[in-house]
């Protein structure tokens, strides 16, 4: 009997072998759920809620978020895997599979009497060796667009249909390359992702410039302007009644009127400053003027601006202030005194697109191109959501490749190589620990095995072939999912992110070891008392 | 298109949404569809927006963002029905290998009688459900079970990290809420929704906020308030913390957690709002929920959210008239500043529902014969007493012809109440005489509150179909269709007493003990700062002299 039950007779607990069994079965369970999703030939899942909300996805990360996981161990694994996605943008499914497989292999050894501690030690040594293999296999890719396209395509083809994936790949790579600024950290926030429920997914486009999700709020403002100065500002052009009714500031109704007028005048003066600048720069030229304000602009101010043919947008996104200056040049102004031409951005084309009640304003053909927009299109909400998830992951894959300066051969090649190298390494390990190393080597093969099963091939066949080829050729070899034959990933352009693989090795080992070393599970919190 | 007095409604949490759902229903039942009748005295454009969907149909939906947990919506679709294509696409249309598509369907929830009826009418296009009586008391589990209003796709905002009614991982602490806000998905998404509503408003008055204040939503709302304060600092923010009991038994630790959340919620909301009005149907709410407030003509179950939220919604529907009337330019800002002198950011809510005229059917006699206070308090730990300094009152549902009796007595001419032509004027005069030294302002409209289904059947049998009182009971097949009401905001000494009682309750807590049992930790400093804020606030109420 566990000590806890002396203190709390209602506590539930599981000890030693029983605890391990609980953990292992949970890990296997979640592995089974996720297994079919791996790789470009995995299953697509359509989730329909009772209310009719639809989600179509095969992204492990999205699925884990959607699933209602009750089991504590399973939810631990799920959270570790989604945390992995938060950091690198990919590898969720692989993490779940590898953790499950590590525990499965360990289970075999434990049932033969090996102590979990020794297995954990073996896992640890195996991981160190695997990381060495990773270093050896990585392929430098300094600024090579080809390879960036390949790595993004590899990632995206596991999320969406391959024709769409190829389209998105190009956009993702171009977007990241556009915002890349040598010497500075790559900030993916500078790629705006805008959704438009319109046309089909294949109409998704990369816009050199910005797409804003709002438009002019005055019927007389121009819908399309060319050669436009862009004033980006964060200045209120909205008259707001202040608390003049509290009675301290005026005694008579006339005084109050005056106060109101003075305040209104204050706003109008600001508008006039903009108009003055516009007159100075644009009158008698073919140039135009656009104001994009983070604060509000009230109808009266809009009217004044519209009379001058100025296109004005209010309540822009905070982040767009930064993006706009990166795309069009100029600076975001917090004050309208002493405006001059240098503070303005420039764009050759600004136009509005109306879709039902939604307006979009395109700011294109800009002076600089340090901020771009990926404009997602789709006939319905769930397509857009799916695209958005995919594009985010694609962007992340490109960013990872640039940050790492290296990629790793994909299609299961890396795992095969690690497995093989670990088998060699095993011979040098003394004592029972080598069994742990061996288990790790076996577990890594779950990736190529699952890939092959998902593509409709025999997993035994595939593994034997892969291992043989790897030994004889001594270069990384992967699985061709359409023929079931062996391929060299480098020839086909199938690459994975270096940092993703590194993360998988790290977090899987840690979590699997931790779960192995659990020898007692108890549940004695407040919530169990309630029931 | 819009009138330029827009208000955006923000709802945080399941309890708040219960109130919100009733409120939207009440408003929608009050819509006048008949083009020949005079326009409503209420300007519905303040809280609603006109839009157009992709089928080119005009829509009229609340300008609101509603936050709740995953799994709390039942049959309600996240993106609403108005803008989305109905139906589930067939798997063949998905661009993927056909044999590799797996469809996972969750069972459709069973719709209750009311919703089925609503659906049926929708097909036939007859807005005629006022005549029906529904016995919904056993069928209501979540607020969407009785929601009549259709939402804009931007309105629903779902927290996916936590599940509704999940005992394993409850959403119970302030810190959990602020963590959700700062998670990559939620905060930014919410701010974007809010920004788009602000962008389309020509001259926003401000935000009205309903927030759960005893669970994780307090943290979510606290962070949102801070954001509003940063981003739209010139707008008014009117916050209604909602307190409702959800289940009867709580462990001591849960109670302590609730106190911590309350302290944080009250402190944050008073820091970042123009006016805070805590609302509850219980008379005490700190550790144990006390018995319900007494309303003369209501029989309701105080532990049943469907009932209590209807009362709170009626209050909101009445008091919000201050910034929703068509006839004048009174704004939320004026209301907030009228009851918040010298830093008194918190005010009491009082309500009289139904404010049924006696059998004589006129306001003059009813007031003459009235005994005791006119209304009951809706703010916990605050009783209706003499300590009131300022009050803003709204009356609705008294028609012009109901002001004075048709048969006059000679002494009526001398009655100072007699010469008033509106219910506001008469009530104002009454209050001047009955509550000495209280500075009051009163507004009124003639329109009643619509209490047709799905408003719960909580009226006593002496209230007639049209909301009047009669000693003969109402026939059982008939529901009360409309009701008059009085709602008020009071700045009183008792508000300060409430705050100091919460403060002393909070000081008694051993924070470390609670935090050990909670999953996430609250900064001890933040907490003591919040307690300090409450204490300072309560001191503002100590003396009525300077107001």
UniProtKB/TrEMBL annotation, chain A:
The terms describing its cellular component in GO are:
cytoplasm
Localization recorded for this chain is: Cytoplasm
Q: Does the keyword Glycosyltransferase apply?
A: no
Identify the InterPro entries for this entry: Chap_CCT_zeta, Chaperone_TCP-1, Chaperonin_TCP-1_CS, Cpn60/GroEL/TCP-1, GroEL-like_apical_dom_sf, GROEL-like_equatorial_sf, TCP-1-like_intermed_sf, TCP-1_chaperonin
Q: Does Nucleotide-binding show up as a keyword for this record?
A: yes
Q: Which GO terms describe its molecular function?
A: ATP binding; ATP hydrolysis activity; ATP-dependent protein folding chaperone; unfolded protein binding
The record, for CDD domains, names: TCP1_zeta
The UniProt family comment states: Belongs to the TCP-1 chaperonin family.
Indicate what this protein is called per its UniProt record: Chaperonin
Species assigned in the record: Bemisia tabaci
From TrEMBL, chain B:
Family statement drawn from the similarity comment of this UniProt entry:
Belongs to the misato family.
Alphabetical GO CC annotations of the entry are: mitochondrion
Q: Which Gene3D superfamilies match?
A: Tubulin/FtsZ, GTPase domain
What is this organism's lineage? Eukaryota, Metazoa, Ecdysozoa, Arthropoda, Hexapoda
Ranges for domain Misato Segment II tubulin-like come to 5-120
A single GO BP term for this record reads: mitochondrion organization
Keyword list, A-Z: Mitochondrion
Q: Ranges for the DML1/Misato tubulin domain?
A: 139-322
What protein name applies here? Protein misato
Main location per UniProt?
Answer: mitochondrion
**Where does the protein end up?**
Mitochondrion
InterPro entries under this entry? DML1/Misato, DML1/Misato_tubulin, Misato_II_tubulin-like, Tubulin/FtsZ_GTPase_sf
Entry keyword annotation includes Plastid? no
Name its species: Bemisia tabaci (Sweetpotato whitefly)
CDD domains attached to this UniProt entry: misato
